[in-house]
Amino acid sequence: MKTKLSIITLALVPCLAAAQLPETGIKQSVTATSDSLIVKYKKNASAQMRKQARSSVKAKISDSNSDEIDDNYKFLLSGRLAKFNITGMSTKEAIKLLKKHQAIEYVELDYRVSIANIPNDPRFGELWGLNNEGQTGGVVDADIDAPEAWTISTGSRDVVVGVIDTGVDYNHADLSANAWINPGEIAGDGIDNDGNGYVDDVHGINAITNSGDPMDDEGHGTHVSGTIGASGNNNEGIVGVNQDVSIAGCKFLDASGSGSTSDAIKCIDYMVGLKKFGCKHTRIK
Length: 285
Hints:
- The protein has 5 helices and 9 strands, in the order E-E-H-E-E-H-E-H-E-E-H-E-E-H.
- The chain is α/β, with parallel strands linked by helices.
- It has 2 domains: 1-27 and 154-285, CATH 3.40.50.200; 31-114, Alpha-Beta Plaits (2-Layer Sandwich).
- The strands form 2 sheets. The chain has a 5-stranded antiparallel sheet with strand order 3-4-2-5-9.
- Helix 4 links the parallel strand 7 (204-206) and strand 8.
- It is globular and about 60 Å long.
- The two termini are 19 Å apart.
């Protein structure tokens, strides 16, 4: 049976799940890093042209085999993205130079984003005077008709959803049964069995540490995962929109809830790469 792979960037959307999984939200403000840029090369840019562009601003990239393809973005846009680590000049100066270079399609700042500082008090969601989401009262049947949808399908473990966020607690009682298992990895052997650059990425990756463990140390990603796919009919906690699904954790936000655009893109690149490393699918959303 083929696997359907859905890439869903969920770190930047409000939370919708019930209070039994941690309640958090999203800030509107972002800040730029002071020493890195995200660059997209033109389709016709050769390795030599890429190197010239990078050298013009004295930038470094993660490139273990010297092919001018960033190791962290090998699959997304056919390797045309790169994170430039800038030294010796400001990012503003570097952007000005790169915009004029024939190899560059666009360049932008590497931003840092963070989740909002929502209190963890269990009844905060009832305080409509502080944050009104229509949680008291409301209109009957103003919902997504999940029970009606479940008469058609409750989901499938063959659908893989990548949650790009603070990670996922794949041991959570209401999520463990729906945690994605990488068919190309052998858990705990310390070997990159599928050759995708991550050791023991059984349930996903940590883009911050470049490791194969997406365990959530903040809570937001686990909360979002509960909305998507908390197990159904297990007499435990809540239920997700998909009672059956495979959730792959892609951690780019740290324990403080902050992370960089470049690491978020690294997570997307990982999900795109799954079609090459052990995850057959019919489409990518």
